């Protein structure tokens, strides 16, 4: 009998056969589609950002409209580090993650109490404050012009960031994979299960001894760090950091990415990133100015029809309780 | 300083009229409608179009803006919003963001992205001053007009809520939808009319505020947070709560921008965050209210 | 000499003008089968909320196993051994009974922060889950998401979760409420078979269950303790009959 329960529990965390295939394809793509290395890089970054949001939104049920705050923090931290301290990418990445994690820890104090609405407000407010801050501290951040001239040193001392974007794509893919593996472990662990319990029924979670507030703070902080990593990658691979990393659009877009791919599923972030980026690219080339209209329409239709009922073959692979 | 207070009050009252519809619908339908600002924008643009293309006088544009936005609100409520009431908050957020994006992009397409200028009638321009020295009270006539209109609306709203049958039906539905329906109150009609009126008020606010706040396609996004602050801080169980919250916000914003221009918007955002952490249910909620 | 495991002294709960709980004193002995009865609106659930920390009392003290817990948060009281079930099922709809129990057992065994190890990796946890599933007749449905389960099974899971926390004191809030007749027996058996060293406080309206289960009863009326005693005393108490049992409703069945 114990065998049966253990088997069943472990079944959800088992590696599915299509997973290594997906990752192999992902890593082969900069070679196979070498002219698209830049967009592959962007997709990897957006996917990582979406995964960070999934941790709090999909698995813990925290609706945040200001997650770009941590993304932007990571971006500016990494950019400033490269400019003023040293241009090594990995050290800069670590710095970016550290700073955004710290910001996340501070902000986590604000999201613990209150209803969905107050949390929405507070996260929105945080994002706006950081946008304002970045704007005002223009002696540091370059203000509306952005932080330019961020030159990165070679990765691991050997791989130069070149114009083709190949190094950038592999850099982002590797970092993405590392965080994905860590996130995957987390969501399948007892800790991850307690997060889902909090999401499904906070009252009951408290009633079985889960310290809800500290878990919320913890996952929010971790999520901020991962978002910061994505932001740092952006700044490092594009050599540039501008105010739009803090923009409301970015927070809304990443939520859309996650919802399109599927919340509570980790791979939703990846799938959504691919779909979203491709959609964005196509729509922008058709209607460069008004593509937000179509995004908006898509959102409305998506929600009216039902996130689950839209025809999405990858949901067939979803098991109960998360991938 | 008194002038700042005066301007803050005018701004606050304007915010109240803009946001009161949101507060009531949020309390009534438990629906997070981030697209509320779009109705305000519609009212503003209706006014601009009527004045510029058809030469309609400003005063007449105001009720027309109200009607236009109310009509749009009613139609959207019946068709798009109604299926959304039962859905989780995340879906509602995404839905209203989607609507907002559509509204913003559409306005940009049809009207261009430049700020719209409203030519106020002569009798609304100008300024009267009382007092002297540090206690000068400078009252712009337009702001005086705004205060007057908004105050009248507030009184009317309060009257409707407290003294009419519709008002009591509305209050019953806010308190407990199921029980209200069980009492024979047609909750659907209450929702529809409330949403329409709320959107209409937003439209009126947009028309009134176009001169003061500026009108361009990004209006819904720019002011979304202000409306949400009014609702979150003021609570959704009365209209005096949002009124006080709006006044507080208006005065804080104007005073902040005047006395500490460098910090400007921080004051507002930080104040909001502090208030929401301290009292997550809002500052002015009555005990046991939502 | 049995010891008092849970003690509430002089509990008062005021909401604005309403006094929901008026100077309530309650002593729960070790191994007790103690029932809390009273008409609707008597304040039984409020009392449970006070005991578990969902509400903070206006006055009074609560002691659990000798420790003053009045200031402790709900999850801290659970960690010290006081667990409750809910009158309206509070379950984790997207998780399966197995996952639910596994996370509860893991949390209780201090593994709640273990983020690097899969949920099923710990054999002790899996074994305890198997035991609980068996005990509560949930084995056949252990892999179905909670939201598709029949009401009776959900109710069983509700209690199983509480047991997974290894409670010393168990507060059952109307466990058979709403359970269809066909599934009641299962539930009643399970309630009767609770471990002897767990002290149970039961809130119930079903007098059959109360009189077959309880060895001690407290009657609560309008937030005040009317009387306390063993089932015979309570059944024959004229005051209790007047207020509660004797209103044309069934008295106890012999």
Q: Let me know the average pLDDT of chain C.
A: 87
Poorly predicted parts of chain C: 248-254
Distance N to C terminus of chain B? 36 Å
Q: Can you count the beta strands of chain C?
A: 10
Share of helix of chain C, binned: 25-40%
Labels describing this entry:
heterotrimer; A: 323 residues; 14 helices; 70% helix; 0% strand; C: 254 residues; Rossmann fold; 6-stranded mixed sheet; 4-stranded antiparallel sheet; 9 helices; 10 strands; disordered C terminus
Explained architecture:
The complex is a heterotrimer of chains A (323), B (290) and C (254). Chain A has 14 helices and no strands. Chain A is mainly alpha-helical. Chain A has a domain at 25-248. Chain B contains eleven helices and two strands; from the N terminus they run ααααββααααααα. Chain B has a two-stranded antiparallel sheet with strand order 1-2. Chain B is globular and about 60 Å long. Chain C has 254 residues and is α/β, with parallel strands linked by helices. Chain C has a domain at 4-90 and 167-245: P-loop containing nucleotide triphosphate hydrolases (Rossmann fold, 3-Layer(aba) Sandwich). Helices cover 34% and strands 24% of the residues of chain C. Mean pLDDT of chain C is 87; it is low at 248-254. Classes of the chains: A mainly alpha (323), B mainly alpha (290), C alpha/beta (254). Chains in contact: A-B, A-C.
In short:
The complex is a heterotrimer of chains A (323), B (290) and C (254). With 290 residues, chain B is mainly α. Chain B has helices at residues 2-29, 36-54, 58-81, 89-111, 141-163, 165-175, 177-182, 187-213, 219-234, 240-259, 265-278, and strands at residues 127-130, 137-140.
Strand and helix map with partners:
The complex is a heterotrimer of chains A (323), B (290) and C (254).
Chain A: H1 2-13, H2 18-32, H3 37-57, H4 68-84, H5 89-108, H6 116-136, H7 138-141, H8 166-187, H9 190-200, H10 202-207, H11 212-238, H12 248-261, H13 267-286, H14 291-305
Chain B: H1 2-29, H2 36-54, H3 58-81, H4 89-111, E1 127-130, E2 137-140, H5 141-163, H6 165-175, H7 177-182, H8 187-213, H9 219-234, H10 240-259, H11 265-278
Antiparallel strand pairs in B: 1-2
Chain C: E1 4-15, E2 18-29, E3 33-37, H1 44-52, E4 59-64, E5 67-68, H2 74-79, E6 82-84, H3 97-108, H4 123-135, H5 151-164, E7 169-173, H6 181-192, E8 199-203, H7 207-213, E9 216-221, E10 224-229, H8 231-236, H9 238-245
Parallel strand pairs in C: 3-8, 3-9, 6-7, 7-8
Antiparallel strand pairs in C: 1-2, 1-4, 4-5, 9-10
